[in-house]
Amino acid sequence: MSTTPALQTTNGTGSGGSKIPGVAVYCGASLGKHAAYQEAALSVGRAIAAAGRPLIYGGGNKGLMGTASGAALLSGGKVVAVAPYAILRTKGGEGRSMNLDAVDAEVRRALEIPRDTSNVELIVVDSMHERKVVMAKRVGGFIGLPGGFGTFEEVMEVTTWTQLGIHQKPTVLLNVRGFYTHLREQIFVAQEAGFISEANLELIRFVDCPTDQDDETFDWGNAALQAIDSWKPDVVPLFDWTVRMGEGEKGETRGSDALQST
Fold it and tell me: Which GO terms describe its biological process (predicted)?
C-alpha cells in the first residue's frame, strides 16, 4: 500500500482547517504580459508561506494563480484551494461523474497537484458565491494581484462586506506596474462625487513599489502582509448580520409598506 499522503478534501462551508487565519489571494489565471506580474505572485506565495499562514485561493494551476500557490508550496507553506464542483468536473473530463470518494484523482489531474505533497487542502463547493464565503471565513485579509473581471469582482465584494460590517478584514491591492492606479483614481472620483465616504477610503489599501526600487525585484509579498497586519478596523456595522428569518418568513412576499421602514 502506498504511503503517499492523500489530498485533504472537504465538502462544505465550515471554517475548519488551520487555526491560523489564512490570506486570500485573488489574481488572474493568465500570467500577463510583463514578468513583474509573475515575480509579484512568486513574492506573495513565498511571503505567506514564510509567515506560516495558509494561502487560500480559488484553485487552479494556470497563470498567476498557479504561480502564487506553487511558490507557497515550494516554500513549505500550506495551500487551500476552494473550487466549485462544476469547474472541477469540467476539468476532470467532459461528462465524467465525480463524487467525493473519487475527487482525489480527478482533482490532481485537473489542478496538477503534486502527489508527494500533503500541504494542499481542497474544498469543493457548489457555487461561485459559496467559494467566496468559504474563502472569506478562513482568512484575516485579502491580497489582490493583477487579474481580470473575476479578480475585480472578488476584491470589490470582500471590500463591500467590510463596509457593511459582515466582516472586518482588509483588502490590499498590489499596484504592480501601476496596474491598479486607475482603480484607485476611480475610488477617489466616487468619494469626491459623494458615493464613498472619506472614512471608507481606508477599507482598501494600495501597495506601490518604492521609486528607488524595481517592480520585478520589490518584495511585494512582505509589503502586502505588512499592510494587512497594520490595518486597524474602524467599521461600525450597519446591520445585525446574525439575525435570521423564521421558517415561515422565507420566500414571503410583502407589500410596499414593508419597505418604508428600511
Answer: cytokinin biosynthetic process
